[in-house]
Every structure is written in C-alpha cells, then in structure tokens.
Amino acid sequence: MDGNGRWAAQRSLPRTAGHKAAETAVIDVIEAAHAAGIPWLSLFAFSTENWRRPDGEVDFLMELVRRTIRKHALTLHARGIRCRFLGDSDIRIPPDLARDIADLTTLTRDNRRMTLTVAFDHGGRRDIVRAARSLIRNRVPAEQVTEESFAHHLPYPDTPDVDLVIRTSGEHRISNFMLWQVAYAEWTFPHVLWPDFRATHFWECLDSYRGRERRFGAVRIPTPTGKS
Ligand code: IPE
Ligand code: MG
C-alpha cells in the first residue's frame, strides 16, 4: 500500500493526512476481495524499515491502526474474515495496540471465509533468518532441510504462495515483503496512489492477473488440438 505521503503532498497536507485517507482504500479492498471470494488477502501496512520514519509519523500510524481495528473488528468478524498479523506485534509496538491486535486475532481465529494477513512490523528477510534459527534450534539435520521443511519454520506456515502482488503508486520494488512466499508471484504496479485505490482498481489488477500465463519456470506444452 504505497503512495500515502505523495497523495498528501499533492494536496499540501501533512503526510499523516495521506495515511488517514488510506483507511477507505483498505476497507474497500477488503470488501472487494471478500465479495470476490478470494480466500487469502495480505496487506503490507508497516515494514521493519518503517521504524526509521519520524517519531510523529510512526506514532500516528500506530494510533491509526488501533482505531481502524477497533472500528472494524466486529464487521470483519461478521464477514467471516480471519485476521492475523505477520510481524513482531508484541515487541516494539505500543502495548495497547498489541492488545487490540491480540483481541482481533482471537475473536476471528475460527473464521474461514477469508484470511486477512496484515503485515505489520514485517520483514521478509527477518522471517527467513528466524526460520533458519528455528531449524538449528530444533536440530534438524542438514540433509532434511528442504524447501518444504524450511517453509514450515516460517511464521504462519499454512500461508500459500502469493499469486498476485499489487504495489500501488508506480514504484517497482519488493521492499522486503514476504520474500519467501512471493517467489513465483505475478506483479502489478498500478500508478494510482494508495489513498485513491478502490475496488475498481483492484478488479483491474485481477483482470490483468487472469490474462497471465503462469508457467512456474516450465514451458507450455501445446496440446494436439493446438489449444492449451
Ligand atoms: C505507504 O505510503 C504507507 C506506509 C508505508 C506506512 P508512504 O508513506 O510510503 O507514501 P509515499 O511513498 O511517501 O508516497
Ligand atoms: Mg512509500
């Protein structure tokens, strides 16, 4: 979800105004994905690198996430959405927000219509390093370390590989997002800034994804009829 600061700058507003405006986009996309029957949706809300931003902006983001959780928790639950947070939501973030995160996770843990993963204080490299540590701590013999067994040591190992990544605002970077899980993801880079992103943009990205040929490194084998 990128472009909040630029959205605000275009309006001569403080960066925080862009973050505030982003709430509408977040809810719109969750609703759109839910309505489309998408079983897994992940939102990159805050990275391990975002702590480098000015204290005022970080504090604002923490408070905004807290308010958003409180405002929408019951609706998310009623929609059958399982909410979980990928990141260190109990170490650096304020205790009251950590509590709200834990409460939302517990409230919605048995929901299965859609899993909403909020990557918050998330770093893809950190997750990989931690998986390596976990393997070593569990004394897994080197020859038993496979891609599959390794993935079991990542947080939320039930998370499937990512099919489609949407990065808004025209930037073309991974920014340390779910590095392991995006290995074969398709990408779209809509130019729209995140606070302006709506269900219609989301559908455009899905349309683009539908048109892709996913070969996972293999080649397409033509059928005798010429159809595939
Ligand atoms: C994304 O918008 C929000 C977060 C990373 C929290 P930015 O704040 O990165 O917006 P730009 O890139 O400055 O426009
Ligand atoms: Mg940015």
Walk me through the structure.
With 228 residues, the protein is an alpha/beta fold. It has one domain: Decaprenyl diphosphate synthase-like (Undecaprenyl pyrophosphate synthetase, 3-Layer(aba) Sandwich), CATH 3.40.1180.10. The chain has seven helices and five strands; from the N terminus they run H-H-E-H-E-H-E-H-H-E-E-H. The protein has helices spanning 4-10, 15-35, 55-78, 95-108, 124-137, 147-151, 199-210; strands at residues 40-47, 81-86, 114-122, 164-166, 186-188. The chain has a three-stranded parallel sheet with strand order 1-3-2, sandwiched between helices. Helix 2 packs parallel to helix 3 (55-78). The two termini are 35 Å apart. The model has no long low-confidence stretch (mean pLDDT 95). 3-methylbut-3-enyl trihydrogen diphosphate binds at residues 1-6, 46, 50, 61, 169, 194. The site of 3-methylbut-3-enyl trihydrogen diphosphate has 11 residues, from helix 1.
